[in-house]
Amino acid sequence: MVEAVRRAAEATPAKLAFTFLENGETESARYDFAGLDAAARRVAARLQADGLAGGRVLLAINPGPDYLAAFFGCLYAGATAVPCYPPRQHGKSRELAAIAVDSGAGAVLTAGGMAATVAERFAETVEDSHFPVLDVDTVDDALTGSWTPPEIGGDDLAFLQYTSGSTGAPKGVMVRHRDIVRHVGHMYRRFELSQDSTAVSWLPPFHDMGLIAFILMPAVMAYHAVLMTPRDFVTRPARWLEAISTYRGEMVAAPDFAYELCVERVTDEELSRLDLSSWRQACNGAEPVRAETIERFTEKFGPRGFRPETFRPCYGLAEVTLAAAVPLSGSRPVIIERTWDTDEPDQGKRLVGCGVALDGHELAIVDPERLERCPDGTLGEIWVTGPSVPAGYWNREEESERTFRATLPGGDTPYLRTGDMGLVQDGELYVAGRYKDLIIIRGRNYAPSDIEHLVGPCHPRNRASGTAAFSVNTGTANAAERLVVVQEVRTRRDSDFEAIVEAIRKRVLEELEINVDVVVLTKPTALPKTTSGKIQRRACRARYLAGSLEALHEWRASTGERSDGPGELEEGWSGTAEAMEILLAENVGRVIGADVAVIDRAQPFSTQGLDSVRGAEFTGNLSVLLGVPVPAAALYEYPSIRDLARHLVEQRAAGEGSGDEL
Question: Which stretches make up the Carrier domain (predicted)?
Answer without folding.
Answer: 575-652
